[in-house]
C-alpha cells in the first residue's frame, strides 16, 4: 500500500466513465490516496447523479468522450494518469446498437488517446474485456497472449479494437499504456437494468419478488470478480513500470456456477420466487469463463482477496442501503 500511496502522491487523475460501477469505486479509492485532483468525465448514459462519487478533490464533468469541448475541459489540467473506462457497455446492447457501439468504443478511445498524447500523460490505462477478447478457440484458463479475432458481438470487436489503438499509440508515440481485461465484475455501485450484469439484476428481481431467469441450464460458469479487487489491480497498473505496454487479466481466477450464484442471491434476500430457465442468447457461445491471473500476480502484484460469498453479501448490503434510488433508477424497457 505504501508504494501505491507514494505513486499517486500529488497526481492529477482523469477517469472517463468515473460515475459508473467500476469507475466510481476507482475514484473513491483514488480520493483516499494522496492525489492532488480526480476528474470524472461521464455522460451518465449508464450511471446516475446520486451515485457520482463526491469529495473535495473530485471534479465532475457531465460530458461525452465524443465531444471535443468536453475533452478539452477534462484535459485542461493536464492529468498525469488517465483511466479510460467510458464505454458503450454490454454484449446485447452492442448487438442491438452496433453503430453506436463502434462510435463510442472506437472513435471514443481514439479521441481520448489523442488528447492523452497531447498532454504527455504518464500512464494511460484502458478498460478492455477479458470476456470479449478471448474466443472459443482460446484455451482456458485464458492467458493474455491467447486473444481471438473470431468474436461474436460488436462489443467484443470494439473492445479488442481499443487494445489495438492503445498498442498503436504505444508503439508509434511511446505512450505509456496498459490494457486491463476485466472479468465479470460485481459489487457495490452497479445499478440493475436491461443491459447490466446478471448479479445486480438478480438482486433486483429477488428483492422485487420475481423469479430469476437463467439462460441455459445453470451449469454455466463465470469468473466473477469483486470490484474492489479490480480497483486494486487498476491502481497497480497506474504506477508499476513493468505494466507499461502490457495487458493483464483482472479476474478472480476461479469459476462459479450460475445456478449456485442464483441460489445464493435467493438465500441472501429471502426470496421464495425461485428460478426460471430460458433459452441461451444467440451470441452467448461461451458457457465457461476462467481467467489466468499469473501474469498480473508476477508482474504487478495483483492478488484478488474477496471471496465470492462475502462479495455477494457486500453487494446485497449496498442494495439494501440504496434501495430507494435503485428502484427508482433501474430501467428494463
Describe this structure in words.
The protein is α/β, with parallel strands linked by helices and 333 residues long. Strand 1, helix 2 and strand 2 form a beta-alpha-beta unit. Helix 3 packs parallel to helix 5 and helix 10 packs across helix 12. 47% of the residues are buried.
What's the SSE blueprint?
Blueprint: H1 2-8, E1 12-16, H2 21-32, E2 37-42, E3 58-62, H3 68-75, E4 81-84, H4 91-96, H5 98-118, E5 123-129, H6 130-133, H7 154-173, E6 177-182, E7 185-186, H8 198-207, E8 212-215, E9 221-222, E10 225-226, H9 227-239, E11 246-250, E12 256-257, H10 258-269, E13 275-278, H11 294-300, H12 308-321, H13 323-329
Parallel strand pairs: 1-2, 1-4, 2-3, 4-5, 5-6, 6-11, 7-10, 8-13
Antiparallel strand pairs: 9-12
Tags for this entry?
about 325 residues, alpha/beta, seven-stranded parallel sheet, about 40% helix
In short:
The chain has helices spanning 2-8, 21-32, 68-75, 91-96, 98-118, 130-133, 154-173, 198-207, 227-239, 258-269, 294-300, 308-321, 323-329; strands at 12-16, 37-42, 58-62, 81-84, 123-129, 177-182, 185-186, 212-215, 221-222, 225-226, 246-250, 256-257, 275-278. The chain has 13 helices and 13 strands.
DSSP helical segment count = 13
Low-pLDDT residue spans: none
The whole-number mean of residue pLDDT values reads 96
Helix/strand structural class: alpha/beta
Helix content: 40-55%
Number of strands: 13
Listing every helix as H and every strand as E from the N terminus to the C terminus, the arrangement reads: HEHEEHEHHEHHEEHEEEHEEHEHHH
Rg of Cα set? 19 Å
> N- to C-terminal separation?
43 Å
| Coarse morphology | globular
Strand order of the largest sheet: 3-2-1-4-5-6-11
Classify the beta-strand content into a percent band: 15-25%
Biggest sheet statistics: 7 strands, parallel
